[in-house]
Amino acid sequence: MDFSMKRRTLLKVIVLGDGGVGKTSLMNQYVYNKFNPLYKATIGADFVTKELQIDDKLVTLQIWDTAGQERFQSLGSAFYRGADCCVLVFDVNIQRSFEMLSNWHEEFLKQADPSNPESFPFVVIGNKIDLDCRMVPEEKARDWCASRGNIPYFETSAKEGYNVDEAFLCVAKTAVASE
Ligand code: GDP
Ligand code: MG
After folding, report:
1. Whose Cα sits closest to atom 20 in ligand 1?
2. What angle do CA 72, 169, 174 make, to 5 degrees?
3. CA 142, CA 153: separation in Å to the nearest integer?
4. Taking the model in full, what pTM does it have?
5. Which pLDDT belongs to residue 38?
């Protein structure tokens, strides 16, 4: 038996949020260190993977992308089931995308139906902080997260790669911790 073999954990991560907030860009920045300024609406659902080490655990993050405009139902609840973490993304420059967080949060819990909804790991990302037209104050977003069981909150720029690794590291850690 090879005792140097480490246990590898596969974690399913679902990324949700309105269309155009930067879900696909955040994933591309995190996994490929690339940013594509051209907007191409995501069709259906797809995933990318990233391997990382958390303490002595090898972790494979399987990050599922979705098209925000799509009806949740069309993805089917099988898509959500078995998720280990849900990332909710909004654009700090678009008020409406922030207001929609509650809907995405609720809809995820309804579809995924986790055994412990109160303690299910979410991470919230306020993206596009490189732009100069912020509409959602950081304080507002933090309050929203605090009122839902202290969800960790990150402000990022997928364009500049700012805080993206940190956000997904938190995703991995909270998912591992809740296993
Ligand atoms: P999705 O629909 O949520 O997957 O959003 P996309 O990742 O496709 O991004 C929508 C548009 O916003 C694209 O034109 C991206 O290039 C742009 N975008 C995404 N993230 C950022 C960011 O952090 N800063 C800026 N300035 N633009 C971004
Ligand atoms: Mg997309």
Report:
1. 22
2. 65
3. 7
4. 0.93
5. 76
